[in-house]
Amino acid sequence: MRKLTATEEEIMQILWKIGKGFPKEVLALFKQPMPYNTFLSTIRKLETDGFLAFNKFGRSHQYYPLVNKRTYSQSLFKNLFSNFFGGSKEQLLSFFMEEEKVDPKEIEDILKKFKNK
């Protein structure tokens, strides 16, 4: 599964949240305004690429996601994990601890919670 552009991802985030929507409804929820035709082109590309589908109501289209958020997130993570960390859990954890300045005690607490589940 390909990585979405920032605009595509924002469209998907909105549709994952609201479930389905007409273009003007989705565009109204955008953080940054953008030209309507550019927005429609992006939606059509998402539909062509299999991320979205639509129900037709006269001349209007109500779009909804075909790919759920979890599936997309898993695909991104698998790509990141294999391409940037070589599939090494140790490298991933080390990077996370350094970047987020995680205290080893926090990791121990997380592990205890994980073991109790």
What does this structure look like?
The two termini are 31 Å apart. The longest helix is centred in the middle third of the chain and has 17 residues. With 117 residues, the protein is mostly helical. It folds into 2 domains: 60 residues, Winged helix-like DNA-binding domain superfamily/Winged helix DNA-binding domain (Arc Repressor Mutant, subunit A); 48 residues. A hairpin with a 2-residue loop joins strand 1 and strand 2. It is elongated, with a radius of gyration of 19 Å. It has a two-stranded antiparallel ribbon with strand order 1-2. The mean pLDDT is 93. It is built from 6 helices and 2 strands.
How would you sum up this structure in a few lines?
This protein has 117 residues and is mainly alpha-helical. The chain is built from six helices and two strands; from the N terminus they run αααββααα.
List keywords for this structure.
62% helix; 2 domains; elongated; two-stranded antiparallel ribbon; Arc Repressor Mutant, subunit A; mainly alpha; 117 residues; 2 strands; 10% strand
Structural category: mainly alpha
Task: Provide mean pLDDT, rounded.
Answer: 93
| Beta-strand residue fraction | 5-15%
**What is the helical fraction, as a range of percent?**
55-70%
CATH topology heading of the largest domain: Arc Repressor Mutant, subunit A
What's the CATH first level of the largest domain? Answer: Mainly Alpha
Strand count: 2
Give the terminus-to-terminus CA distance: 31 Å
Largest sheet: 2 strands, antiparallel
Strand order of the largest sheet: 1-2
Count of helical stretches: 6
Structurally, the number of domains stands at 2
The unreliable regions are: none
Tell me, what's the shape?
elongated
Radius of gyration over C-alpha positions, nearest whole angstrom: 19 Å
Under CATH, the homologous superfamily of the largest domain reads Winged helix-like DNA-binding domain superfamily/Winged helix DNA-binding domain
Order of helices and strands: HHHEEHHH
CATH architecture of the largest domain: Orthogonal Bundle
